[in-house]
């Protein structure tokens, strides 16, 4: 009995020491904090890029598919072809390979690793967002765009005021998942030397010769942030559903 | 007003409209009836180019609207359309549903459009619904709003594509009443419908379509009392 207690006490003491060494000693928590801030920053920037790219690609692809049969637009055909290549290549290769190519081949001479990583993430996310948005646009009842066009609204106004708002509501769950994936994928920036949360955890691990606490701590922070994102997503969905209520 | 010449439309190998020529005069109330699959909805949807004709021309007030260079949005602004399934915009209030097109196309300023919307809503007895969303309305109310939305563009002709077919029977009357009033005011109307009573009472001409052709047309009285074609007689014996 006494032995067990002694063991437990020892375990607690070594846990405390490990925790202290990993997060508090020498103000190391500041490293995690700046890492988290970078992670959030990267996520927001990449997200904006992904949404802009994704919506553009989705609109081009949908506009191309919905042309009147006797007036096909050549420029739209070329754009559509480029968009198709983009989504095929990006969705057909691993994220980490794209990250390494961006960091070590295309921007090999640049030292701004975090920024390069952000661009790689944005480009990657754009391809997935494009397919999600395209699915959402196609899923809005064709009668909606017919009604808009029959009133004399042009294609762009019909998309902007009628189709996209409805599509947005429908694709929100899928987009939310994509954003959460994007948020977690920011950890991949570490592979090209970007200084985000995982980079901080690994740096502390190297300094203290103990990786368990830093890695568990990083995992915990990711988890909490994802839970917050999920909560926000649910709240937004509930608000957008207001117009459906009787 | 609308001149249709040798209009054909096929979906793939399926010929839906076969060489139709027809003219719609200002002030006419043309009622198009026929069995399902006869091409009557497709005919109507070709008139504002929601369907692109395979062959033939459609001329609206002197403009050949089948010409690929014609600004179709400009043409559609003058042709209102009412759909079987209403197609109100569920993401907007009723007021916004009505004012969106007049404002965006530059026909009216927002304040003018709001006033026009209220005036139109009063006409159909729904002014208290201005700030409601479509999901809060009954089918009959939705269709009356859809008519008002089309009227807000001050169209020269109104196209109705089976406006009462998706309604509960008790709501058909309120929609037909609005359409009858519109007819009395002299609006040019093309109505695809299964409401024979409406055709008889309001129509100035009835077209009977089957198999992509206009088989027979006449004034409502002659058409219903003395149908000429055997197919027409068979159809009328089933629906009357």
Strand content of chain A: under 5%
Unreliable segments of chain A (pLDDT under 50, ≥5 consecutive)?
A: none
β-strand number of chain A: 0
> Helical percent range of chain B?
25-40%
Q: How is the biggest beta sheet of chain A arranged? A: none
First-residue to last-residue Cα separation of chain B: 32 Å
| Elements of chain A, N to C (H/E) | HHHHHHHHH
Could you say which structural class the secondary elements and strand pairing of chain B correspond to? alpha/beta
Mean pLDDT of chain B: 94
The largest chain-to-chain contact, stated as pair and per-chain residue counts, equals:
A-B, 26 and 31 residues
Largest sheet of chain B: 6 strands, mixed
Summarize the helix and strand pattern of chain B as letters. EEEHEEHEHHHEHEHEEHH
Give the terminus-to-terminus CA distance of chain A. Answer: 66 Å
> How are the strands of the biggest sheet of chain B laid out side by side?
6-7-8-3-9-10
How many helix segments of chain B?
Answer: 9
The backbone outline of chain A, from C-alpha atoms, is elongated
Helicity level of chain A = over 70%
Strand runs of chain B, count:
10
What's this entry about, in short?
Chain A is mainly alpha-helical and 246 residues long. Chain A has helices at 2-24, 29-65, 74-92, 95-106, 113-139, 142-150, 155-185, 197-208, 212-240.
Give an account of the 3D structure:
The complex is a heterodimer of chains A (246) and B (240). Chain A has helices at 2-24, 29-65, 74-92, 95-106, 113-139, 142-150, 155-185, 197-208, 212-240. By secondary structure, chain A is mostly helical. Chain A is elongated, with a radius of gyration of 24 Å. Chain B is built from 9 helices and 10 strands. Chain B has 240 residues and is of the alpha/beta class. The longest helix of chain B is centred in the last third of the chain and has 16 residues, at 169-184. The interface between A and B is medium-sized, with 26 and 31 residues.
């Amino acid at each position: 009995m006494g032995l067990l207690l002694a063991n437990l006490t020892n375990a607690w003491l070594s846990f405390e020491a490990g925790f202290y060494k990993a997060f508090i000693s020498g103000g190391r928590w500041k490293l995690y904090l700046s890492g988290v801030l970078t992670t959030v920053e990267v996520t927001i920037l990449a997200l904006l890029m992904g949404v802009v790219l994704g919506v553009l690609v989705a609109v081009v692809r949908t506009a191309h598919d919905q042309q009147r049969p006797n007036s096909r637009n050549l420029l739209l055909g070329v754009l559509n072809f480029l968009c198709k290549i983009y989504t095929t290549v990006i969705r057909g290769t691993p994220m980490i390979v794209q990250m390494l190519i961006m960091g070590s081949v295309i921007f090999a001479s640049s030292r701004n690793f975090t920024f390069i990583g952000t661009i790689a993430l944005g480009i990657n996310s754009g391809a997935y967002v494009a397919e999600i948005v395209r699915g959402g646009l196609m899923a809005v009842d064709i009668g909606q765009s017919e009604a808009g066009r029959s009133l004399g609204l042009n294609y762009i106004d019909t998309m902007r005021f009628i189709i996209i708002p409805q599509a947005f509501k429908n694709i929100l769950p899928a987009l939310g998942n994509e954003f959460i994936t994007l948020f977690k994928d920011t950890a991949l920036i570490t592979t090209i030397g970007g200084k985000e949360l995982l980079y901080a955890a690994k740096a502390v691990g190297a300094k203290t010769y103990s990786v368990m606490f830093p890695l568990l701590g990083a995992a915990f922070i990711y988890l909490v942030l994802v839970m917050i994102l999920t909560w926000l997503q649910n709240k937004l969905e509930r608000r957008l559903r207001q117009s459906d209520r009787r | 007003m609308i001149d249709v010449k040798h209009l054909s439309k096929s979906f793939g190998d399926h010929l839906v409209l076969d060489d139709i020529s027809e003219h719609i005069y200002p002030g006419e109330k043309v009622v198009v009836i026929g069995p399902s699959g006869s091409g009557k909805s497709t005919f109507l949807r070709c008139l504002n180019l929601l369907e692109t004709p395979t062959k033939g021309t459609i001329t609206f007030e002197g403009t050949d609207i089948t010409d690929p260079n014609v600004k179709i949005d400009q043409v559609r602004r003058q042709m209102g359309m009412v759909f079987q399934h209403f197609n109100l915009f569920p993401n907007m209030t009723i007021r916004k549903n009505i004012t969106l097109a007049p404002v965006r196309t530059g026909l009216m300023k927002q304040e003018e459009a709001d006033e026009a919307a209220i005036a139109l809503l009063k006409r159909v007895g729904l002014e208290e619904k201005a700030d409601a969303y479509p999901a809060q309305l009954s089918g009959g109310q939705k269709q009356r709003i859809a008519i008002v939305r089309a009227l807000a563009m001050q169209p020269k002709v109104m196209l109705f594509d089976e406006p009462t077919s998706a309604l509960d029977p008790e709501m058909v009357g309120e929609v037909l009443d609005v359409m009858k009033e519109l007819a009395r005011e002299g609006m040019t109307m093309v109505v695809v419908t299964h409401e024979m009573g409406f055709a008889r009472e309001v129509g100035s001409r009835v077209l009977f379509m089957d198999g992509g052709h206009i088989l027979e047309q006449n004034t409502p009285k002659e058409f219903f009392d003395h149908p000429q074609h055997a197919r027409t007689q068979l159809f009328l014996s089933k629906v009357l």
